[in-house]
TrEMBL record:
InterPro entries: Lipoprot_YkyA-like, YkyA-like_sf. Residues 1-22 form the signal peptide. Gene3D superfamilies: YkyA-like. This is Cell-wall binding lipoprotein.
């Protein structure tokens, strides 16, 4: 093994040891930070969702061919989609971190605490993290499908053979997927907000 490879392995070992050595409180704090970060990303997504109808109407009025909605287009609708996709990528990274923290929390038990009350408080927070992890998984999977469907729809609208059927059927499909995403988000938001609360507040 080369010196460089040895150092890389040693560095990885240190990281693994550091991760394994995290206390329950530290992991909970990390999960709370991820919840805060995910909340910020969701706010960006929701702000752009609220603007989407106006952006779509602006593009429709500016370019009847709707070429500005296609990939590479400079329209407001395309910019809106890109902004949401970027925020969603950040959300997914934060969610993956929280998912890993949820897995770590499952490894702790009563033997890691000196007082029964401390474990009881930890157990309550752990259950909250696990709930957010499970609920957010559904939203993340669904919302990526929403973004993909939107992208495909805008491409179809910009095509030369696009017609009213493409317009109405595509809109109906996206609205259905979007509604599902909103229902999933409504489930997770109360628990996400609770997890993101500053414990010192």
């Amino acid at each position: 093994m080369t010196k460089k490879a040895s150092l890389m392995v040693a560095g990885l070992s240190i990281l693994l040891l550091s991760a394994c050595g995290a206390t329950p409180d530290q992991v909970i704090s990390q999960a709370q930070q991820e919840a805060n970060d995910m909340t910020e990303s969701l706010q960006i997504i929701q702000t752009n969702e609220a603007d989407l109808q106006t952006d779509f109407e602006t593009d429709l009025a500016a370019d009847k061919s709707l070429a500005n909605m296609a990939e590479g287009g400079q329209g407001e609708t395309r910019a809106n989609l890109i902004a949401r996709q970027d925020a969603f990528e950040t959300l997914k990274e934060d969610y993956e971190n929280l998912h890993n923290q949820a897995a770590t929390l499952k490894k702790f038990d009563e033997t890691d605490f000196t007082a029964e009350e401390d474990f009881s408080n930890f157990s309550e927070m752990r259950n909250l993290v696990l709930t957010v992890d499970e609920q957010m998984a559904g939203y993340v999977e669904n919302y990526q499908a929403v973004l993909d469907a939107e992208n495909d729809y805008y491409q179809q609208l910009a095509a030369e053979d696009s017609d009213l059927t493409v317009f109405t059927d595509g809109m109906t499909g996206i609205n259905s997927q979007y509604q599902t995403a909103q229902e999933l988000l409504a489930e997770v938001l109360p628990n996400l907000a609770k997890l993101a609360e500053d414990p010192e507040a």
